[in-house]
Amino acid sequence: MGLLTNLLFFPVTGPIAGIKWSIGQVQKVVEEELTDDAPVKQELMELQMQLELGDIDDGEYVRREAELMARLREVRAWRERLGKATAGGPVRVSRDSDEA
Amino acid sequence: MTDVPLTEFDSQPPAGSTDGGKYVYCIIRSDRQHDFGSIGIGGGQRVMTVAYRDLAAVVSDTPIVIYDPTRENVLAHEFVNETVMREHTVIPMSFGTVFRSDEDVTELLRSTYQAFSDVLDKMQDKIEFGLKVLWDREKVVANLERENDEIRRLKDEISRHTASSTYFARMQLGRLIEGALEEMSTRYVSDIHDALKSVAVASRSNKPIGDRMILNAAFLVDRAQEQAFDECVKDTSRRYEELLTFKYSGPWPPYNFVNIKLKLEKAD
User: Under an 8 A CB cutoff, do A53 and B266 touch?
Assistant: First the structure.
């Protein structure tokens, strides 16, 4: 986690443009991985399918569902930290969409 | 103005309170208040309506929280929509949509009134069915090895020869089988679509889930055609009994056929 924190939160101000660029790229990739909930949702759907087909039992489902929920919460926390939009939580109609 | 006063029906704490939120399940056409009973998300909250003109949002009280898409929560969301659907055409909201207050829900209905109205007209008396079709890959491959001459010949050849000469033959066999599988899956999927076309208004294919699924589709069906659609699915599944597993579900609200992009922002 230490390395990740450095990558994510310390601005890179080194003199070498090449290094700056590549660290920027790494940061972008890491950010995308941390903040993408699509794979977790895909796994959740697969899990539901496995239960429906009788490949796993209820206990197994509940256990793995809990893991996936924890991962979803992690993704949400990262998105919030990085100032990205998050699904869930209270919403309201955007003020600039008034068309009446 | 035709605004329906909402607050006299509901004695929730004012907007901004930490626990006066509204969970929204769906939008219906209705000009009177409804009470759908204590079936809401979060342990059987009372499900009611918030109205604006002839539209109503089906809601229940909720603390301001983020709902995880656990089976329990998703089923609760789904159960409310199923209940409402028995008597209404519904526009389903996405899972987990929470507003801070009745006023914010009314604002949603007011600002999206035209789009909701149009879609409700279009979806009048229409329901959705889900159809997932899976195959047993091993069984299909075994079938192929029996029935496809080229594959059978290549397999025989491999079993007769020594390891060195069979490397390429094996690669070729693998490619042949992959190609044949792809072709069969495409043919099954298009046969199934053809069989159901006449009894459905529209269909949509989603990405298959897992590696055994060859079709993950949603069909929009007229309520009047429900039985015909049902029989058609059963006939088709009987036809492929040996090879394919049909997972048929519904009726659902038209999740896959309503696409209203709401302009929502966080309300913190």
Answer: no
Residue with tokens 């996405």: B94
Q: Tell if the CB–CB gap between B265 and A94 is shorter than 8 Å.
A: yes
Domain ranges of chain A: 37-81
For residue B107, the chain A residues in CB contact (below 8 A) are 92-93
DSSP H helix total and E strand total for chain A? 4, 1
Mean pLDDT by 10 residues, chain B (268 residues): 36 46 95 93 94 97 92 94 94 92 94 94 95 91 87 83 71 90 94 95 92 94 96 95 90 90 77
A49 with B68: Cβ contact below 8 A: no
Considering only CA atoms, which of B146, B219, B235, B135 is closest in space to residue B184?
B135
Q: Hey, are the CB atoms on A90 and B100 less than 8 Å from each other? A: yes
Tracing tokens 């038209």 back to the chain, one arrives at B254
A38 touches chain B (CB under 8 A): no
What pTM value is reported for the model?
0.78
